[in-house]
Amino acid sequence: xxxxxxxSRLVQAxxxxxxxxxxxxSLHGLSSADxxxxxxxxxxxxxxxxxxxxxxxxxxGKILRKLEELYVQLACSSCGSRLLEAVWxxxxxxxxxxxxxxx
Length: 103
Hints:
Elements: H1 5-14, H2 21-28, H3 32-40, H4 44-54, H5 57-67, H6 71-75, H7 78-90, H8 93-102
């Protein structure tokens, strides 16, 4: 998985639109390894952060379930820890409890 600056900025801009269905479906189609690469990359983490923080509660829940097994690895990365902090700040109480249990 190769992440470029312009691709990251494009995803961040697309995340601001009202209909993000195609974008979110693509995100849900990524493997755990791809999500880890995206989340720990300097540019990719910004794109993933934007998708997580702008998602609906239902969409955020789906993303967090995919990220559950990656919390420790994200926390050990400088870019991933910033992403994890944004996830924490946008999560509801039940999601925060799940994150804390995994960590």
